[in-house]
Amino acid sequence: MESKVLVLIIGMMLVTYLPRVLPLVVLSQVKIPPLVLSWLGYIPVAVLAALLAPELLLQENKLALSADNPALWAALPALLVAWRTKNLFYTVLVGMVAMVVFTHFLA
Length: 107
Description:
Oligomer: single chain
Low-confidence stretches: none
Number of helices: 5
Mean pLDDT: 91
Number of strands: 2
Structural class: mainly alpha
């Protein structure tokens, strides 16, 4: 029984470790074209948008584009701060404060 557990732990370690290390090892030897690097720069923005869109636009699994959606109102100052400062920390901070304010104001 103990040998099976050890094999299982080593197998899980490899399955977790190899997908992280192999691209690093392989890509460190390859010169990545500037077009690909430019494209990779958009991934964090796309991921953030994909995470935020359902939270902003849905309430109880229904599209909520009305004026009584506090998340939409809170997104406005956060978008303004993001556009002006390009600073993720300030954007999140303003978004959180705005969400608290608009949730209590519109409730």
